[in-house]
Every structure is written in structure tokens, then in C-alpha cells.
């Protein structure tokens, strides 16, 4: 094989992202023998248009629930919709056999929301703007026996 070209891009093709993700997933399967990676989404739909207006996306893999992106429209915040979405994601993680969940938020986003729902902070890394941090959380989904 000749020397590969290596490029940096802010516009990768969906096929490129899939190849990288699938390659890592296959490596994990080869080493662990576990093939259970699945996407997860809990969607908030507009009742009239049925269009998605918010929700959470993530995945489950090897006993972990990862929550990646969580958005609730401003008009719905404080109405319990976010709590319901989070609880549904956690319940689906449990249904899939996940023991633990992980996520990160930004200090100006929702750390108190997660604390209120039993999530425990396990780290923070400063980011921009100054005085802001990425805050990492975890939650046990299945109580220890």
C-alpha cells in the first residue's frame, strides 16, 4: 500500500463518518465479543406538524448509555418535558441492559438539571469562554446488588 493522504475537514461525508464508526465498532466486537452498539433517540414532536422540535440523541454500547446531544425548545423548558425525555432515555438504557450512563454538558447549560435527576459530576475541563467548563456526569442505572 502506498502512503495514504491525510486531510482535515469540517465537512466529512456521511459515508466517511460511518466507515470510521463502523471500523472502531468492529474492532471492539473483535476484542470484546460484544456486538450491541445501537443508536438511541428520544424525540420531542410538534403535536400539529409531527416535526421533531427537540429531544436527546445518544447510543448504547457494552453496558453503557451515552447521551450526546440534548435540546429542549425554550418555550418548553421548565414544563417537565426535559425530565420526561431524560427519564425515557434512562429507561431505554436500562431495558437494553446498561448499568451506567455518561454525558457531558457545559457549565452554562444544564448541570443543575442533571444533578436534580441523580447524576453525579465526575470531572470538569475548562473551555471557552473563560470561566466556562465542560462538566462530565455519570449515573448508575441498575442499583448494585
TrEMBL record:
Source species, domain of life: Bacteria
InterPro entries noted in UniProt: Acyl_CoA_acyltransferase, GNAT_dom
One Pfam family, short name: Acetyltransf_7
Domain annotation N-acetyltransferase: ranges: 6-142
Identification of the protein by name: GNAT family N-acetyltransferase
Organism: Dyella mobilis
Amino acid at each position: 500500500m502506498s502512503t495514504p493522504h491525510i486531510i482535515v475537514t469540517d465537512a466529512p461525508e456521511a459515508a466517511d463518518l460511518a466507515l470510521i464508526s463502523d471500523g472502531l465498532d468492529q474492532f471492539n466486537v473483535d476484542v470484546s465479543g460484544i456486538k450491541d452498539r445501537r443508536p438511541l433517540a428520544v424525540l420531542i414532536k410538534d403535536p400539529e406538524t409531527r416535526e421533531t422540535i427537540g429531544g436527546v440523541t445518544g447510543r448504547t454500547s457494552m453496558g453503557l448509555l451515552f447521551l450526546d446531544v440534548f435540546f429542549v425548545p425554550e418555550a418548553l423548558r421548565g414544563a417537565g418535558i426535559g425530565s420526561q425525555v431524560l427519564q425515557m432515555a434512562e429507561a431505554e438504557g436500562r431495558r437494553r441492559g446498561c448499568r451506567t450512563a455518561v454525558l457531558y454538558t457545559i457549565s452554562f447549560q444544564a448541570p443543575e438539571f442533571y444533578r436534580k435527576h441523580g447524576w453525579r459530576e465526575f470531572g470538569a475541563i475548562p473551555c471557552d469562554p473563560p470561566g466556562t467548563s465542560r462538566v462530565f456526569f455519570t449515573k448508575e442505572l441498575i442499583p448494585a446488588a
